[in-house]
Structures are given as structure tokens and as C-alpha cells.
Write the C-alpha cells for this entry.
Amino acid sequence: MGSITEMQMQEEFIFRSPHSGVVPVPENVTLPEFVLQNSESYADKVAFVEVGSRKEITHGQVARDTERFAKALRSLGVRKGHVVIVVLPNVAEYAIIALGIMAAGAVFSGANPAAHVSEIKKQAQSSDAKLIVTNGLNHEKVKGIGLPVIVLDDEPIEDAMNWKKLLEAADRAGQTGPREPISQTDLCAMPFSSGTTGLSKGVMLTHRNLVANLCSTLFGVEPEMVGQVTTLGLLPFFHIYGIAGICCATLRNKGTVVVMGRFELRSFLNALIAHEVMFAPIVPPIILNLVKNPIVDEFDLSKLKLQAVLTAAAPLAPEVLTAFENKFPGVLVQQAYGLTEHSCITLTHAHRGLANSKRNSVGFILPNLEVKFIDPDSGKPLPRNTSGELCVRSQAVMQGYYKQVEETAQTIDKNGWLHTGDIGFIDDDDNVFIVDRIKELIKYKGFQVAPAELEAILLSHSSVEDAAVVPIADEEAGEIPGASVVMSPGAQETEEDIIKFVASNVANYKKVRVLHFVDSIPKSPSGKIMRRLVRDKMLHNMPSHSTNPSHSTSA
């Protein structure tokens, strides 16, 4: 009898979407086929337009060039399951390249173009990549990795293949032999994530994973909105939200993406007005900028066509939300929560017909998903209004981390539940709130920074004996990496020297922003760093003028 009661409790504490019914997920369709479906009816409509160059690519061109690039890749010997690394900023052709890789049966893996050479090389090696796609600006970074390189630019580059010439050659070649059949269960993407703990790992996503997530995410889009929405493409396309939540979702709904390579406030506001952007996925530091920067007052905000912004990646402070709503009346602020390991969005306010969304919640559970909150120690499911680790189960859960069996087993349990490492709860009105993190990731301006990675770099320095990296709250960036470092006796390096050493080995956004020398790192009896003690001591020793050091840097 006891076991039946326990089973009933397990089921009772599984929560589902307030949207009644299941949203159908089509079978036997790949992600490129799914998002490009019906492109011919919108062939002349602009799909991507770049802010700076004004370069435009239509839906018809996206569908055509996706197939051309897939053919070109096959002619180069790219086969099903081969990983292709894409090292590009946000450009109009990005989605064509990613979808072309998938259409060839290969696996797209986006890399941050701001990453250090060693980081890109590590991603290429960890994923067993066969090819790299980049541009002239980043060719220097990748040319020494030892893989064939395709360059997007028109100008010829020695030892690199030209993208346009490959497409033209594919046209001349016609059909080149039989295609390998592609199944929905085949991998199509391998973004890299630090997961709940530790170093960056390849997240294995199938066509089914991404199609299922898009079906859940887009279920509330009214038919009359198809072909009508202009979305800002500022968040990086190498990130799962950039490629899936912006590019693929917009292609599926036949809207337009306004492509921006980097954030600069004036060009951002000009782009919103000039391109009549209706929907802008951004991160909290941008919202803070819009609220506090006097440059905003130079613009006639009545010209904005903006209807909604979506913010994720980091918490949005309540006072910042209120200030934004006062400054931009009528612009809906949607908060969302998602994970690379769950193919993108998991919880969001963007539900049709749900009016009881609450401020500071991350929204409601999407259709086709199951969510539970468990006691982090016992693993037992918890009732409403009780904080626990958020776990999710759906068709969008990743297949696992590439060649990381142990890490996968720690993240996805035997019943298919993805353990997120985040602490939250669901209230009586189905709003979900995220309140804390088990995982130790630092979120700098929405980018993930793994303390373990920075600690490994610090410990590689000949004068460093021990190190601990922790998140330090920061008004502009959300969190910044701060380090406590134990130096060897007689070491001559200054704190600034060690900061520069780390900076020379990582992407700009991963830089240690605050560093203090200490006598020892507090650790538990098992040897685990006691990060809260590290952070508390660091904050205690931090002079008031340096509590917000990220303002002097950019990422």
C-alpha cells in the first residue's frame, strides 16, 4: 500500500502546461524541412536583413541556398554524423549555413567568434569536427587547427575554400549520387554548454529534439501572425536560443530577422525604429541600459513599433522591470527560462489566452512538457509553493553529452528527467519562479562562464598554488567572475598580472574581473570549495569603488 501511495505522490507532483491538450509534433521531417516548409509561398519576403550592410536574404533564397550548401558539403565528403564547426558573428547567411549542414545529414556546432584560439580548438577536438566555416576576420583563429576551412567572404583566402564558389560548383555539378537518408533521431546540432557543473561539453540534439521544442514554443502563434512579425536578431546565433529560438522560429513563421552583430545603444535603437522591430529577445543588461542610459532620451520612442521584449539567461531585477515598463509603456516584458540541454525554451510567458502571468516569474510550462521540483538531497518530488530542483521531461531533452557518459547520467536520470541544477517552485496559478542555482555557473551578460574552467587556467600558472572562482553580483553584467588566489612563496606577480594571464587564455566575456590574493581557500572535509565563504570574504575585502568593475570593460 505504501508503494502505491508513493507512486500517487510522484504523479501528483508532476506539473504540466495550463494549456490543455497535446500539441502535435510531425514525424519523419527534419529540422530544415520543418522550418522551410511553405517557403515558396513567401519566396520574395525578406527573411534576414543586416543592420549595417542592409544586405537582405529572402525566404526563397534561404530555401534555395540551404539545399545548395548541403549539396556542396556532400561533394566535399561530409557525411551523416560529421560535425561542422561554425565560427561566425551574427550574419544574414548564418541560418543557411547551419541548416545546410543539417540538410546534408551533418551536425552543426556553433562556436563563439570571440572565443580564444585554444577554446575553438578544444571544441573542434571534443566534437571530432571535420570542417570549419568562418569568415576572413576569424580565419587567423582557425587556420592552425588542422581542419579544412570554408570562408564566407568574397575575397579569396589562401588555404581556404570560398563559400560562394562552392555553391556555384554545386549548381554546375547537378545531383551528385544518392543522398544518405536522414532520420528524425539523427543528430543535427551540437551546441556546447557547461551543463550543471564543470567544463564545456557537446550537447547532442536530434532533429526530433529541435522540432519538438519549436512545436511547443510556437503553439500560441495565431495564423494571422504568420509572415507578419519582425524579430531582432541580436542574441548570438551560435547560442541555442539564437539559432533555434530566433532563426528557426522566424523561418517557420515566415517573419523577418533584423540581424545585429553586436550591441551598441544608438545603433540598437536606430535598428528598432528603422526596421520596425516588433519582438526583441534581449538580456537583462540591455534592459538596464535602456532604463538608465541618457542616450535613450535622444530618440523619439513614439516611433517604436515594438510590442514585446523577451528576456532570459539571467534574472531581471523587479525595480529594473518597473522602470522599463514606465519608460516603454505598452511594451510587454516576457521572461523565459530555457536550457541548451532542453533544445531551448522550457518556460515562458508567451502563452495564448493566459492572463494570470505574474511579475518576476519565468512563465508557464510549455505544452508537451512535464516538470517537477525535487528535494536536492532526497530526490523526492515536492508540492506547489515548495522550492526544489527543477526537472523537466519531454521530447526536447537532449540525447546526452558527447562522449561524456558519466556527466550524462548525472544530468538525465533513468526515467528521462533532465535535472537542471536550478532551484524553483510553481505556485497555485501555474507560474514558475526560479530562485537559486545548485550549479555553479556564472552568468556574465547572459553568457555562461564555468568557474572550473577559470580555476584550471589559474592553476596552470607557475606561481599559483590554489584558486577559487565565484560569481560576484554586478548591476550591469548580472554577475562577474571573481577569483581568490593563493600564490607560491616568493612569487613576484601582482593581482593585475594574474588577471591579464587569464584574459590571454579566454574569450573576453570570461575574464576574471576581480581578483584577490589570499592565504588559503576554504574547503569542506571532502575537499570541495566552499564558494559561499569565498564570495563573502571577497565582498568583505572589496573596496566600495571596485564593486562594479565590469563597467570599465566590454564583452
